[in-house]
Write a structure and sequence with these properties.
The protein is an alpha+beta fold. It has one domain. The protein has 4 helices and 3 strands. The protein has a 3-stranded antiparallel beta sheet. A hairpin with a 2-residue loop joins strand 1 and strand 2. The protein is globular. 26% of the residues are buried.
């Protein structure tokens, strides 16, 4: 449960610090992604953001159970992320209705920012992992992986 709070804290902090200007230069597509000890780190210097997902088991789940990159289009991932993050944020604002240990803080995911494929892929897969691991259903169909 503590790992979820760290993930949310990091996601919130990094997405809040995102630059809302869309940059389509070739440099903006350069994303550094690394996985170390159940920590997934994504950075994009051109857009000035960093996302760190710290959750025991997520990197193992990502490597073994997620669909491969480019299986879904970026627009598909963005649409699912908008729905799931929206529902996540709604649950954060209702602490008496939903488990406060699961939904501790909001995630600032701006649908007008092009975070790129890698960020959307990892957020999407984290949301699938979260929903299946903690038996939650945020919105619509959740792949049973």
């Amino acid at each position: 449960m503590k790992n979820i709070s760290y993930v949310l804290l990091v996601l919130l902090a990094t997405l809040l610090s995102c630059n809302s200007v869309k940059n389509t230069d070739a440099k903006s597509d350069k994303i550094n992604s690394s996985m170390k000890n159940d920590t997934v780190r994504i950075t994009n210097d051109a857009l000035e953001y960093e996302v760190i997902i710290i959750d025991a088991g997520f990197s193992t789940w990502l490597a073994s159970r997620s669909l491969p990159r480019n299986y879904h289009s970026q627009s598909y991932l963005e649409n699912k992320n908008i729905l799931w993050v929206g529902e996540w944020n709604r649950r954060v604002l209702q602490p008496f209705s939903y488990n406060r240990n699961l939904y501790e803080m909001t995630i600032n995911y701006d649908q007008n920012v092009d975070y790129g494929y890698e960020v959307n892929y990892l957020i999407y897969n984290y949301m699938v992992y979260f929903q299946n691991t903690f038996k939650q259903k945020l919105f619509g169909y959740v792949p049973p992986r």
